[in-house]
Design brief:
It is a single chain. The chain is of the alpha/beta class. The protein has a single domain, classed as Uracil-DNA glycosylase-like domain (Uracil-DNA Glycosylase, subunit E, 3-Layer(aba) Sandwich), CATH 3.40.470.10. It is 44% helix and 13% strand. The strands form two sheets. It has a five-stranded mixed beta sheet with strand order 2-1-5-7-6. Strands 3-4 form a two-stranded antiparallel ribbon. The protein binds iron/sulfur cluster. The site of iron/sulfur cluster has 14 residues, from helix 5.
Length: 217
């Protein structure tokens, strides 16, 4: 079978090498109309990643939450605030980091006036990985941080224990490295101040490890 010519490739692929920023914008525009799985039905809009197309560090969360769904920006709700605090404590400038989610629509269950967060299932993570794969392909960060089990699954293509995997660099394809750590929403669920402080310090340590490796690469 003949190889497709460059003109047959999706526009974002044609732009990828010469203009990653333009490629990323095209990819985000395409994602707005995604109906690959059913999650778009119950959500307001696609929440795509944001940040520089040449970022050396990428953070991947689980999925947008209620607030993210309404404003179409990742990590702007309570978990986003916790992430911002951890980034600040780690001396990492969020403006230099590309931030995205493994799943681009808010999975939820309407209950009265509220929308209750529901964890994406394996098939939804696997289907939505198409977008994450293309974000990685365009940005080609040195280090990707998986924030939580959903992101770890999307990145590593298998279920992993966060506790057994965190605190070290894991080699991926194309000389990329991964750091696996908790999702910042985990900190919000802890009751004891002492536990919150300890877990916050662990998260900052993991983010620092990733940022230092991203700079060195
Ligand atoms: S969750 Fe992902 S795959 Fe499913 S509709 Fe949304 S963007 Fe498409």
């Amino acid at each position: 079978m003949a190889r497709p010519s460059e003109a047959d490739l999706p526009l974002f692929r044609q732009e990828r090498v010469n203009d990653p920023e333009a490629a990323l914008k095209l990819l985000a525009a395409e994602a707005k109309g995604c109906t690959r799985c059913d999650l778009y039905r119950n959500a307001t809009q696609t929440v795509f990643g944001e940040g520089p197309a040449d970022a050396s560090l990428m953070l991947v969360g689980e999925q947008p939450g209620d607030q993210e769904d309404l404003v179409a920006r990742p990590f702007v709700g309570p978990a986003g605030k916790a992430l911002d605090k951890a980034l600040e404590a780690g001396g990492i400038d969020r403006a230099q980091v590309y931030v995205t989610n493994a799943v681009k629509h808010f999975k939820n269950e309407p209950r009265g006036k509220r929308r209750i967060h529901k964890k994406p299932d394996t098939s939804e993570i696997d289907i939505c990985r198409w977008w994450l794969g293309n974000e990685l392909d365009i940005i080609q960060p040195n280090v990707v941080v998986a924030l939580g089990a959903t992101a770890a699954r999307a990145l590593m293509h298998k279920a992993l224990s966060i506790n057994a995997s965190r605190g070290r660099l894991i080699a991926l394809e194309d000389e990329m490295k991964a750091v696996i750590t908790v999702h910042p929403s985990y900190l919000l669920r802890l009751r004891e101040e002492r536990d919150k402080r300890r877990e916050f310090d662990f998260l900052v340590k993991d983010l620092r490890l990733a940022a230092d490796a991203a700079r060195r690469s």
